[in-house]
Amino acid sequence: MALASARFDEARRRARRLVAAALDLTPAEIFARLDRMITEDEGDRVAALLRRALSHEPLSRILGRREFWGLEFALSPDTLDPRPETETVVEAALARLGERDRPYRLLDLGTGSGCLLVALLSELPEASGIALDRSAGAVATARRNAERLGVGARARFAVGDWTSALRGSFDAIVANPPYIESPEMARLPREVRDHDPKLALDGGVDGLDACRAIAADVSRLLRPGGIFACEVGSGQEVAVAVLLTAGGLVIDGIVPDLAGIARCVVARRPA
C-alpha cells in the first residue's frame, strides 16, 4: 500500500477515506461495494487523490471539509484547518456562560472557517454573534458555513483587523489568533506549512503579536463580567495571561486540551 510504504500514520483509514471520497461514498459504504470492480474513471479519481495525499496534503484539504464540534465545516485556502484542540475554547466559553437560553452577544476574532462562532451558536439558540477575519476569503467561507449549518440568521461577518473597528458590548469574546513564532514557521510539518494560510499561523518573532494587539483593547468590548477565551500555543499561557491582566482583565482560568497542554486562557472583565 502506497500510504503505508510512505510511513503515513493510520494508512488503512486514510486509504478508505480517500477511496470513499473518490467514489462519492461514505467510508462505511466502501465495504458494501467490494463485490464489484471499479471503473477506469473511478480508478483515475482514486489515483489523483492518492497523489495529493502522498505529497502530504492533509486529508481534510483533499476532501475540502473538517468536522469540528460535531459539525462539518467547509475549508478554503484562506482558512485554517480547525484542530480538535481548538474545541477547548468552545468548552471553556460554554462552561462560563451558564444558562444556554439567554440572548448572549458573542464576538469571534480571527474566525477562519467560522468554527468557533458557529459551534457556540449551535449550543446557544438565543445568542447572536459577529465574526471578524483579516482575510476576505476566510470571511466568505465562514459566512457560507454559518448559513449551511443553520445559524446564518444569527451571525454577521466582516473583514477587520482584530478589535480596532469594533464598538459595542459583548458577553463573550473568543479567538484563535496566529501564535506560531516566525522562526518556527519553516520547521512546521509540511501538512501545516504548505497548506494552512501563513496569515493564520505566523504570530511574529515571539508568537504573541496578535495576542498583544487583542489584549490591549479587548476589555473595552466586554460587558462587566464578560469573558474572553483565547487559544494559545504550548508554553504561552503565562505570557498571554500577563498581557490580558495588563489590559485590565482578571484571569479566570487556564484550560488544558485533551493532551494535557495548556490550550486556552480565559479572562474576565471585572464586574
- Mean pLDDT value: 90
CATH T-level topology of the largest domain? Rossmann fold
User: Structural class, from secondary structure content?
Assistant: alpha/beta
Run of helices and strands: HHHHHEEHEHEHEEHHEHEE
Please state the CA-atom Rg, rounded to the nearest Å.
20 Å
Distance linking N and C termini: 60 Å
What is the number of helices?
11
- How would you describe the oligomerization state of the chains in this entry? single chain
User: Rough shape?
Assistant: globular
- What's the CATH H-level superfamily name of the largest domain? Vaccinia Virus protein VP39
CATH structural architecture of the largest domain = 3-Layer(aba) Sandwich
- Provide the spatial order of strands within the biggest beta sheet: 5-4-3-6-7-9-8
Instruction: Please give the domain count.
Output: 2
User: Which regions have little confidence, pLDDT < 50, spanning 5+ residues?
Assistant: none
Give the % helix.
25-40%
* CATH domain class of the largest domain: Alpha Beta
